[in-house]
Amino acid sequence: MKKYALLTLLLLLSLGVVLADVRLPKLFGHHMVLQRNKPIKVWGWASPGEAVAVRLNEREVKTTANANGEWELELKEEKAGGPYTLTVMGNNELVLNDVLIGEVWVCSGQSNMEWALKNTNGAEEAIKASGNNQIRHIKIQREISDRPQDDLMSEAEWKLSTPENSPSFTAVGYYFAKKLNEELGVPIGLINSSWGGTMVETWISREAFEGSETFRDRITAVPRSLPDSLISQNNPNSAPTLLYNSMIEPLIPYTIQGAIWYQGESNAGTAYEYRESFPLMINDWRNRWDQGDFPFYFVQLASFKAGGGTSASGSTWAELREAQSMTLSLPNTGMAVTTDIGDSDDIHPRNKLDVGNRLAAIALHDTYKMKNPYSGPLYKKMKIDDDKIRIYFDHVENGLQVNGGNELVGFEIAGEDQVFKPADAKIVGNYIEVSNSDVSEPLAVRYGWYDDNIDINLFNSAGFPASPFRTDHWKGVTAGKQKKLYSY
Fold first, then answer.
1. Which tens digits make up the pLDDT trace of 269-283?
2. Rounded Cα–Cα distance for residues 283 and 354 (Å)
3. Fold of the domain spanning 103-366
4. What SS3 class is residue 299?
5. Which pLDDT score is estimated for 3?
6. Measured between alpha carbons, how far is 294 from 282 in angstroms, rounded to an integer?
7. Signal peptide position in this chain (predicted)?
8. What is the CATH number of domain 2-99?
9. Phi and psi of 187, rounded to 5°?
10. Do domains 2-99 and 103-366 have the same CATH topology?
């Protein structure tokens, strides 16, 4: 019998037929969380024409691998629950254990998203209390590629939240998940695909750049295949799309609820262009995931001395915050303001608890339809009243208030000369009245329009800080500046 089996194998090889084991993307594994209440995408590879079946919670779906050995199917939506076993059957069988059904969120951006729980304020106590079987986390390894990858380039592992595992979790993501789990009572899965110091352009696909009037000409100068010497440097900012290719494309089309994002520091010098590049990335991910305008919630830059920018000298960080605020015009987006919890001397503020909780407040209100406050005051409109300007806001809640003092800090006012001067500002009912005795004919107001604005103190009654803003459209210091996409 062994002789005949060997002859059969040799015959198949001579005909160019190779029997491949059915396999799944590295994103799938023991302890993973699958998205509830939506069709669950499962995909992988097998021999061309091979029959493949996937079973979950006593439901089975079948398909056949195409000529390239690729297969994909959808499992019917499931309610939150588990643990279940996911079984994939082809010429071989794969069994994934301890699979939960709940809410899945992608956590991405640069270092403030990647920042580990062990390096934050209150880490010791938080880690001791982190045992929670319903919170799961997978860290995507930091790798670059000049071509879109159909699978992760390195192994990745879903880990339960335990005092042994949680220290390396994304801190913002962990606190976000903890709050959601407390309020919703369902499992939360975090896909942590982040890399410190990265520009937004490296997270965008080449096709998105090619479809953009702003970036189309510049992306044509970037070769599709980059020199090996450049790739070997493992620098994600050396060319666009490098992290999209290796750390986002392999996640698609895993069924998710949404994404949380903390990035922008590396784009402050080209903040005006971020008005286009950031929405381009969000739309790109949504288009390629093909799961509709899924929730995308992001963190506005915290206070930091950066370049010491002000209204007088120009502030790149203020302009980047403005670009982030403008991105709220996209559907199903939300922004957590963090000026009050920054650190003037550290670009990595250690308070990640409030960041995660503020993102969770947005998700609880917008995604999960709870009636909770979730935003600080956002500039709505202005009205000139003789030598004063009235500023009106959305998200006033039950009233505006001064946090940590008796006087409002951070308001400036200017006339036709465009020279901003410190303003007297006071709360009058549901608006702020702003003035300066030296500005008799005011035209514009700015609030928190400087890099290190940790002192600004306008909040609403729910305890959320107001976002920095300006009422003018005068030219800023980053207008016309473009991010260099490629240099080699």
1. 999 999 999 999 999
2. 27
3. Rossmann fold (3.40.50)
4. strand
5. 41
6. 10
7. none
8. 2.60.40.10
9. -60, 150
10. no
